[in-house]
Design goal:
The structure is a homodimer of 163-residue chains. Chain A has 163 residues and is mainly alpha-helical. In chain A, helix 2 crosses helix 5. Chain A binds a DNA duplex (30 and 30 nucleotides) through helix 4 and strand 3.
DNA sequence: TTTCAATCATTGCATTTGCAAATAATATTG
DNA sequence: CAATATTATTTGCAAATGCAATGATTGAAA
């Protein structure tokens, strides 16, 4: 068991493992609802109010073309509606139907918060908070690095958070 | 910019964001090589020596059926070979070809270590180490929770690491 | 107003995905 | 040895993915 390790502890790989596991757990749970994790994210995000497709993409982290089609499916399922934004006819406003809202509210207790509780089992509040901040910092680092299209040999790393 | 936030700070979501960004960065870089991130993982993992498909799946976090097909493609690209394990004819041993090894070695400098450096930009060594350990703990938590098929209302969270 | 650039969303297309079933070989048990 | 359970890998199939290109609308500049 401790044999196949070695090199398994890089941060990106560990995070990949965690995200993959969470996805599999959520997918398993959401399958009876006819949804996968992305659909679940969309559903619960919309509980907070109407959003444009663009906002939804940013808020859920789903690729926008993927999202567009996902919205089509969820719309066909009767979970949400799409209508043109009167103020800007390029945008499409997505909102939950009563059915969608009902579904979301019914299953709210097993949403991400609970997965977060699983993830953070055994963590102190301070540890959890430090972790959360570190994750946010890493996102900033990535956004800074993303501008360069290529990470380079590592020279640009420290600058991102160092200021 | 600080407008569309709200609820963006759950641990699973933040990690999803990070993993997605890393994937996009690596995919962009790896595309000229005819690979995506999973292929890159396989390639560099094999640099450490031959592996069975099963081991490779565990080590790279790639779904096994996906991996099987990916190996077929990479084999067709001349990057690796598959042969039956003489000691256990159920297993298939995957190893790099000279071409594959050459490719891996050429591009080693921009592999995950560098992305890790990007991610950890501005982190102290202690912070990085704490983060790494937290990630490992979270994987353990997930594995413990995975046995139950469903996360429940949150009652099982603390038990996982608390013992 | 006309023209050109930027933004938002959708779709074409080939590729890839994941689950579940199938296939094959080995371990275990009696 | 025979029968059964377990492990390793591959494939059938329907569905989903992402990039790039398109259509439609708005904003800016002259």
């Amino acid at each position: 068991m401790t044999d196949a390790r070695a090199e398994d502890r890089s941060i990106p790989f560990l995070m990949h493992q965690i995200v993959g596991r969470v996805e599999r757990l959520v997918n398993k749970w959401a399958r009876p609802l006819g949804l996968k994790i992305e659909g679940v994210r969309v559903l619960f995000r919309l509980l907070g109010g109407e959003r444009s497709v663009n906002e939804l993409a940013r808020l859920t982290g789903v690729e926008i073309s993927t999202l567009s089609r996902l919205l089509g499916r969820m719309s066909a399922m009767g979970l949400l509606t799409r209508r043109r934004d009167p103020a800007d006819a390029r945008s499409v406003i997505v909102s939950l139907t009563d059915t969608g809202r009902k579904l979301a509210l019914e299953h709210q207790p097993v949403y991400f918060r609970d997965y977060e509780e699983v993830l953070l089992g055994g963590f102190t509040g301070a540890e959890a908070q430090a972790l959360r901040q570190h994750l946010i910092d890493m996102i900033d680092n990535l956004d800074a690095a993303g501008d360069e299209t290529k990470p380079g040999a590592g020279e640009t790393a420290a600058r991102a958070a160092g200021g």
